[in-house]
Design brief:
InterPro entries: AAA+_ATPase (IPR003593), ABC_transporter-like_ATP-bd (IPR003439), ABC_transporter-like_CS (IPR017871), ACT-like_dom_sf (IPR045865), MetN_ABC_transporter-like (IPR050086), NIL_domain (IPR018449), P-loop_NTPase (IPR027417)
Number of helices: 11
Bound molecules: adenosine-5'-triphosphate
Oligomer: single chain
GO molecular function: ATP binding
CATH class of the largest domain: Alpha Beta
CATH topology of the largest domain: Rossmann fold
Pfam families: ABC_tran, NIL
Structural class: alpha/beta
Keywords: Amino-acid transport, ATP-binding, Cell membrane, Membrane, Nucleotide-binding, Translocase, Transport
Shape: globular
Number of domains: 2
Number of strands: 14
Largest sheet: 6 strands, mixed
Order of helices and strands: EEEHEEHEHHHEHEHEEHHEHEEHE
Distance between the termini: 43 Å
Strand content: 25-35%
Protein name: ATP-binding cassette domain-containing protein
CATH architecture of the largest domain: 3-Layer(aba) Sandwich
Length: about 350
């Protein structure tokens, strides 16, 4: 539904001698229809610029952007204006018109597309019902809570029945409870309307609760990208570390400390109990949890395996778990993923194990 290739955007800092800032540095991105894709990254990573290039609020210096099969980067102004109706956008600070009521704010999006008055009234009522604000049509933004303001923003963004919704830190200004209710609404809209959502965020909760796919962005580039459950099993995944922080020592006297990740149905298997029973060993769990993510069930633990851990690692991998050392041995770039052998490949021969 969204296809970005080789996207690059630079800015010139203020002043005649301003240096060039590369905000987006060659990003490729494909968001499938109906997916919720989250781009995570620290401040200045380039997330907002990337998002604004998707609806061409910023014109990229290089690369292509296509939404719903239409290459926006190739359109003239008039055609681009029309194509933008198929892309809704919501903002961190809601961007509502303070002089208009809730209904007036939503109607505004229909006025600019030339929808007739009666049809507008009907559609506004429908949209407010969709976002759970039917009773507040005549309220002004100043009379609303943050969550209600964002609901107006969502209703307005959906006015022209877009297939794609862009979300720019939509929950960053909200408290955790309100964040949860807005995320539930977005997920509901995604499922009921088949809405494809591309969002940028720095909040892990957002990825946990609604994203099927994600990318981690740093210095204008994607350092990892794909379905969340795939990323969790990827060697050295930053997303895995941030979604499931393992706050525990990475060494244990006389034992091998490993980080184990399981996703999907494997996360339901009482893997650790079964490991202890089958090999007749005790396996201290130093940290970890199993959680229900939007992308599916996933679990991650830090374990202290007896001795060199080879038998236990073999067993865990044969059950579909991804196993990596808690501390990488010094001097080895990818010690647990020797070429030709994926670290999470079941049944890795024991001589390949550390
Ligand atoms: N209009 C602009 N003019 C000059 N530099 C800009 C402009 N917009 C963004 N930048 C620079 O581009 C880089 C990426 O900024 P961007 O806002 O896209 O990052 P971000 O990940 O969204 O961060 P934040 O969450 O703080 O907005 C930063 O170095 C920023 O200073």
């Amino acid at each position: 539904m969204i296809e970005i290739k080789g996207l690059r955007k630079t800015y010139r800092a203020e002043g005649r001698r301003g240096r060039e800032v590369v905000a987006v540095d060659g990003v490729d991105l494909a968001v499938a229809e109906g997916d919720v894709f989250g781009v995570l990254g620290r401040s200045g990573a380039g997330k907002s610029t990337l998002l604004r290039c998707v609806n061409m609020l910023e014109r990229p210096d290089a690369g292509t952007v296509a939404v719903g099969g239409v290459e926006l980067t190739a359109l003239n102004r008039r055609r681009l204006r029309l194509a933008r109706h198929g892309i809704g956008m919501i903002h961190q600070h809601f961007a509502l018109l303070s002089s208009r009521t809730v209904a007036g704010n939503v109607a505004f999006a229909l006025e600019v597309t030339g929808v007739a008055r009666d049809e507008r009234r009907e559609r506004v009522a429908e949209l407010l019902d969709l976002v759970g604000l039917s009773g507040r049509a005549d309220a002004y933004p100043a009379q609303l809570s943050g969550g209600q303001k964002q609901r107006v923003g969502i209703a307005r963004a959906l006015a022209a029945r877009p297939k794609v919704l862009l979300s720019d830190e939509a929950t960053s200004a909200l408290d955790p409870e309100t964040t949860e209710s807005i995320l539930r609404l977005l997920l509901d809209l995604n499922r009921r309307l088949g809405l494809t959502i591309l969002l940028i965020t720095h909040e892990m909760t957002v990825v946990k609760r609604i994203c099927g796919s994600a990318a981690v962005m740093r210095d204008g580039r994607f350092v990892e990208s794909g379905p969340v459950t795939d990323l969790l099993r990827r060697p050295g995944s930053e997303l895995a570390r941030d979604l499931f922080p393992l706050d525990a020592p990475d060494t244990f006297p006389g034992r091998t400390v490993v980080d184990v990740t399981v996703t999907g149905e494997d996360a339901e298997v009482p893997l650790l109990t079964e490991l202890g029973r089958s090999l007749e060993i005790d396996v201290p769990v130093l940290a970890g949890s199993v959680e229900t993510l939007a992308a599916g069930r996933a679990g991650r633990w830090r374990l202290a395996l007896p001795g060199d851990g080879a038998a236990a690692i073999h067993h865990l991998r044969s059950r579909g778990a991804y196993v990596a050392p808690a501390v990488e041995p010094p001097g080895a770039a990818e010690p647990w993923t020797p070429s030709g052998i994926a670290a999470d490949q079941p049944g890795v021969p024991s001589e390949e194990l550390p």
